């Protein structure tokens, strides 16, 4: 959302009147079908999403492969500046999420901010919470604004799976440290000979399994799909749906959150995601199981793929946004984080988060016009939908008297999802929130619900409300 007025010194009320905007209130329903609900609280500023963008999400090992993660994050920040016309000194703070950190840029938010030309006087920090890291970045920004410590915060995230850090073994690290301290030649030679042993030379790869359970997420997804009796065909059908919808959204110009990226040394400018590949269920059915062989149902086709990408969004108090001449996209109304058993319920975060965030805001699932849920696996999405429709699950595991009720599939991830668009772990949350806001305006809805699962059995839910025209 570009800034539409740039009138310094004007009051928020004056600007809002000039633009015909509603000031500090969400009390008027936008549509006849929407409930009349007031979320504003005395003394607490409304928090708005001014704009959210992302560079194209690409499969790892493709066009971004020669870059570094802070390059991606820097260009997301630059894309946000260009899209909004934001003056860099108007930002109070920057927070980015990431999961697998590049050791050379441990605080990648700071490095990306400096690289994008933000003042060294603007603080920045990095958060990590698995697949909901940029969700955490957004809610961190909300907390800063609600507390009054900031008025304008950039939140975002980045992930770079083309070059993950691989360490030497722990044995080798200990030997190298000892060698650095050794003073006599015989001692040094002894340490060097130990360093040449196979056990010392074996590399240490980034963990792909849950630390607490030792199980990969793919194995957990396979077991979850089996527990809810979700067939391979159902999963392939859902994955095919995701790719079809993403392709149609891209072709119809709906993915307006994407900003072009001219990669240094490459002739072409990257304009769109490269993982969207519409396919038939029959073609998908030919792939072999990826995790539990030979009888598993999770395959490369019905799983999200390793992705490089970055995102960024501008979060502000409503008063500050209007004072600066911005027309916000949406109110960021309320959110919850949940956690559950990381072994048998690792990916069921949306099932637990959805009713909690609805109850917290006083909304019903029928009040929601737009659902944007993270798609880690087709089986994970379908398991959540089935869990929400199960009275037994609600009574047995959620201490509820009746089922949550699943989202209406006709409102669900209509512009594709992580299965097709890609899933850079640290960046997906901003995509979800921005897409929800964009869909609300395009489709004429008032409330959107964003939900996601994450490693460790964590989940997140957020209510987004369309900003009035």
UniProtKB/TrEMBL annotation:
EC number of the protein: 2.3.1.155, 2.3.1.16
CDD domains linked: thiolase (cd00751)
Catalytic function, reaction form: octanoyl-CoA + acetyl-CoA = 3-oxodecanoyl-CoA + CoA; butanoyl-CoA + acetyl-CoA = 3-oxohexanoyl-CoA + CoA; tetradecanoyl-CoA + acetyl-CoA = 3-oxohexadecanoyl-CoA + CoA; decanoyl-CoA + acetyl-CoA = 3-oxododecanoyl-CoA + CoA
GO terms, biological process: fatty acid beta-oxidation
GO MF term set: acetyl-CoA C-acyltransferase activity; acetyl-CoA C-myristoyltransferase activity
SUPFAM superfamilies attached to this UniProt entry: Thiolase-like
Keyword set includes Transferase: yes
This protein's GO CC annotations: endoplasmic reticulum; mitochondrial fatty acid beta-oxidation multienzyme complex; mitochondrial inner membrane; mitochondrial outer membrane
All residue ranges annotated as the Thiolase C-terminal domain in the record: 327-465
Annotated localization: Endoplasmic reticulum; Mitochondrion inner membrane; Mitochondrion outer membrane
Keywords of the record: Acetylation, Acyltransferase, Endoplasmic reticulum, Fatty acid metabolism, Lipid metabolism, Membrane, Mitochondrion, Mitochondrion inner membrane, Mitochondrion outer membrane, Transferase, Transit peptide
Pathway field: Lipid metabolism; fatty acid beta-oxidation
Source organism per UniProt: Acanthosepion pharaonis
Occurrences of domain Thiolase N-terminal (ranges): 47-318
Transmembrane segments: none
Subunit-level organization: Heterotetramer of 2 alpha/HADHA and 2 beta/HADHB subunits; forms the mitochondrial trifunctional enzyme. Also purified as higher order heterooligomers including a 4 alpha/HADHA and 4 beta/HADHB heterooligomer which physiological significance remains unclear. The mitochondrial trifunctional enzyme interacts with MTLN. Interacts with RSAD2/viperin.
Protein name from the UniProt record: Trifunctional enzyme subunit beta, mitochondrial
PANTHER family to which the protein is assigned, alphabetical: ACETYL-COA C-ACYLTRANSFERASE, TRIFUNCTIONAL ENZYME SUBUNIT BETA, MITOCHONDRIAL
Signal sequence interval, chain numbering: none
Biological role: Mitochondrial trifunctional enzyme catalyzes the last three of the four reactions of the mitochondrial beta-oxidation pathway. The mitochondrial beta-oxidation pathway is the major energy-producing process in tissues and is performed through four consecutive reactions breaking down fatty acids into acetyl-CoA. Among the enzymes involved in this pathway, the trifunctional enzyme exhibits specificity for long-chain fatty acids.
Recorded superkingdom: Eukaryota
Short name of any one Pfam family annotated for the protein: Thiolase_C
Family: Belongs to the thiolase-like superfamily. Thiolase family.
């Amino acid at each position: 959302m570009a800034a539409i007025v740039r009138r310094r010194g004007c009051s928020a009320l004056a600007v809002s009147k000039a633009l015909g905007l509603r000031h500090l209130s969400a009390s008027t329903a936008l549509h006849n079908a929407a409930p009349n609900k007031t979320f504003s609280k005395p003394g607490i500023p409304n928090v708005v999403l001014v704009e959210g963008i992302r560079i194209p999400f690409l499969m790892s090992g493709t066009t971004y492969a020669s870059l570094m993660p802070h390059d991606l994050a820097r260009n997301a920040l630059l894309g946000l500046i260009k899209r909004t016309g934001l003056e860099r000194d108007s930002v109070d703070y920057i927070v980015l999420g990431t999961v697998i950190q590049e050791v050379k840029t441990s605080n990648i938010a700071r490095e990306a901010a400096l690289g994008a030309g933000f003042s060294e006087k603007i603080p920045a920090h990095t958060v990590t919470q698995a697949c909901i890291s940029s969700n955490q970045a957004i809610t961190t920004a909300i907390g800063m604004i609600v507390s009054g410590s900031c008025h304008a915060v950039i939140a975002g995230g980045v992930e770079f799976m083309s070059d993950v850090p691989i360490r030497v073994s722990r044995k080798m690290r200990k030997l190298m440290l000892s060698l650095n301290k050794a003073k006599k030649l015989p001692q040094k030679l002894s340490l060097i000979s130990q360093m040449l042993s196979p056990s010392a030379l074996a590399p240490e790869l980034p963990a792909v399994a849950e630390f607490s359970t030792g199980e990969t997420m793919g194995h957990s997804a396979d077991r979850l799909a089996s527990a809810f009796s979700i067939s391979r065909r159902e999963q392939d059908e859902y994955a095919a749906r995701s790719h079809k919808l993403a392709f149609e959204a891209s072709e119809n110009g709906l993915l307006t959150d994407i900003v072009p990226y001219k990669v240094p040394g490459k002739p072409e400018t990257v304009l769109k995601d490269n993982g969207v590949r519409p396919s038939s269920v029959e073609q998908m059915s030919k792939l072999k199981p990826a995790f539990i062989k030979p009888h598993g149902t999770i395959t490369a086709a019905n799983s999200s793929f390793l992705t490089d990408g970055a995102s960024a969004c501008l979060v502000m108090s409503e008063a500050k946004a209007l004072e600066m001449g911005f027309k916000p996209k949406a109110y960021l109304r309320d959110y919850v984080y949940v956690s559950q058993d990381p072994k048998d319920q690792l990916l069921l975060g949306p099932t637990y988060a959805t009713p909690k965030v609805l109850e917290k805001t006083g909304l019903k699932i029928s009040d929601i016009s737009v659902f944007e849920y993270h798609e880690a696996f087709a089986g994970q999405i379908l398991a959540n939908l089935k869990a929400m429709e199960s009275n037994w699950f609600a009574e047995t595991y959620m201490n509820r008297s009746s089922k949550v009720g699943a989202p209406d599939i006709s409102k669900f991830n209509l512009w594709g999802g992580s299965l097709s668009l890609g899933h850079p772990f640290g960046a997906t949350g901003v995509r979800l929130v921005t897409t929800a806001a964009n869909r609300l305006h395009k489709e004429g809805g008032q409330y959107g619900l964003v939900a996601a699962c994450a490693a460790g059995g964590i989940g997140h839910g957020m209510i987004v409300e369309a900003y009035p025209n």
